[in-house]
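Here we describe the complex-level prediction in full. Unlike the single-chain runs in Section 2.1, the two entities below were treated as one system.
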Amino acid sequence: MGATHLKCRECATEYALEASFVCNRCFGPLEVAYDHTGLGDDPAATRRRIQAGPQNIWRYADFLPLAAPPAPSQRVGSILGLPAGCTPLLKADRLAERLGLGEVWVKNDAHNPTHSFKDRVVAVAAARARELGFDTLACASTGNLANAVAAAGAALGMDSYVFIPSNLEEQKILATGIYGTNLVKIRGNYDDVNRLCLELSGEHESWAFVNVNMRPYYAEGSKTLAYEISEQLGFRTPDRIVSPIASGSLFTKIGKGFREWLDLGLIEGDVPIMSGAQATGCSPVATAFGEGRNVCKPVKPDTIAKSLAIGNPADGPYAIDLANQTGGTIDAVTDDEIREGIKLLAETTGVFTETAGGVTTATLKKLADRGEIAKDERVVLVITGDGLKTLDAVRGSFESYEIDADVASFNTTVPTPTEVTA
Amino acid sequence: MGATHLKCRECATEYALEASFVCNRCFGPLEVAYDHTGLGDDPAATRRRIQAGPQNIWRYADFLPLAAPPAPSQRVGSILGLPAGCTPLLKADRLAERLGLGEVWVKNDAHNPTHSFKDRVVAVAAARARELGFDTLACASTGNLANAVAAAGAALGMDSYVFIPSNLEEQKILATGIYGTNLVKIRGNYDDVNRLCLELSGEHESWAFVNVNMRPYYAEGSKTLAYEISEQLGFRTPDRIVSPIASGSLFTKIGKGFREWLDLGLIEGDVPIMSGAQATGCSPVATAFGEGRNVCKPVKPDTIAKSLAIGNPADGPYAIDLANQTGGTIDAVTDDEIREGIKLLAETTGVFTETAGGVTTATLKKLADRGEIAKDERVVLVITGDGLKTLDAVRGSFESYEIDADVASFNTTVPTPTEVTA
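The structure predicted for the assembly as a whole is:
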């Protein structure tokens, strides 16, 4: 039971569970394969065991690629690094009403240790890295991953090297360097950073690049979003997921998570309609989807949604396949729509998201406006990051009053309902 | 069972559970009184019921001042507003080691919906406000409360008026206005803002000022920190709490929470040694404590720890009493020590805190350096807010490298272990 081997997604060649990520034969990406024997025999028992697990992703340890998962703990929190996952699923009635939809839920993954879903993938990659004997973490990042890797290094007592585009949001730079990591800013975009890290991972074999040589393990962390959403809905799938697409990894792994549990009979329903969301300033996957192609043409990103600014998305084709298989779509929204999306979500739910969440919310609005979402659909909007990390996007987006510290100044400056209706 | 009345902390006069906060007879502050009959009869049963509750503060609903607490839900998350509480308690072995201490835990309350402990107090105040028929929330805030009230208003569909000093950190202003609140910046400090709100609460009786007319309910929310810490330690009290002091409310209510559960036999141990933490730039409570006085002389705040910048702390005397009763202290640390505290916590635990958490961490270091903490003490450090909200404090606090996107540039610029040891 548990992870058994790595397997090429293209030619199915099998490899040992080591720090490798690409097939020697066909250069396809490697994925983790599992033996789930027994987990589906008594679904109720498996569900009960999950529910009795810790309040973090390790409650799903049976479905994650570790030889010996960190020991479960009933504690809220954990001494096994930062506790990722078990983020809130909020019923967003006021958002649904505003968009004319029946039922909308917000999966708020900003509610993670470093405020993005990247804590999930880093938790899995770092745990596997330790099993394999690594003592240094590294990554190529658009920002959120930088935060998560630097924090995980500090929490686990591992060294870290974090590579980012030099033009990243200041918030994400400060919330990385503070952890005492080796922070390397690259004069270039994310695709340049990624290429460099690919080269460096060959030269520094003692480093666990979470999204290069550890990528198969890293990517599995995203499945926990599907598990959690199902569990929070009473072990049922929702009808539709709206999720951002950068490399396409998160999007496809959410699909994989639902499928695994459906195959084992742990949840009821079907794989949800998968609706992908990109920014028009970096939409290679949406463009290919719109043109009926499967191969994504690389682009040079130019968008405020920097955490999604991957011009050459590794898992783009698989994301397109998943959208097509589930009757979904992949849309793109403008920077102005992203800013409006952030505001719409904040005003109707109390969740302040970064630009990536603005992309997802704006895409939900676009789907609603197009009439693509049936009234009886249960929709889950995946919010992957926090508004405090992309403040440029909201500066000047609202009014405020400035007054002296006396009632007269208040009364003459700030309209109140009584006055408005008077 | 449950909350029975409001009671003057000074003269014990009783009042109904309405929106009142000050005694008509002696002008003392009102507190919520409870009838806990039955809750201590079978402690094991009460503990089990708590553990079976939702993953937020409503698992402690029996100890909170609501007529009908929001219905418990097993879901992670909640449809009853934003899910506050159940934040991680992290074992901080590397921090303990750095300070020469035996056992240190970090209660990370930045892991709340708007990233501070204020979500707890607002959740309780807003729930009670709805019971009492209010449809507008308001507050006087040093920043974190502004975020929490504006978000709660958006989540619950209530109007809100938020009053802040105009010189607040930009991060906290943006993370308030985005929710569509009425944001009022006051040319003055927090004490001016507070005084104005006190006046306005008389003129706008249909507004629930969470920390003015709703203050008795609001303050009770802080008790949940004590409940959670106990529960997370296996229904035992820690030996010492290090907590920040602004108004003194959080500090004293943590003490009240432990005492309530000890009285009922729900937890083992004693009320912990309570160590308070202030910034030297605003330390009226630490100063009074140091001088052996009980009454705090108001000061004009001047510190980077703006969330603690209350020059005239309402609950200062009670905080001093608690520190004295438990054998604790109340210390103050400089702005430089605060910056170092932020860095120390981040580097050793992976938790990035705002200036208030820097105050607490620096105070823990000061107590350790003074040799005041016994080797066998179990210490809990209360981290109340998030580093992303006070970025000025960390700018320029670390080194980084900037390179071109090629291996040669990396090799010539970034030192790596192999080179260092060569």
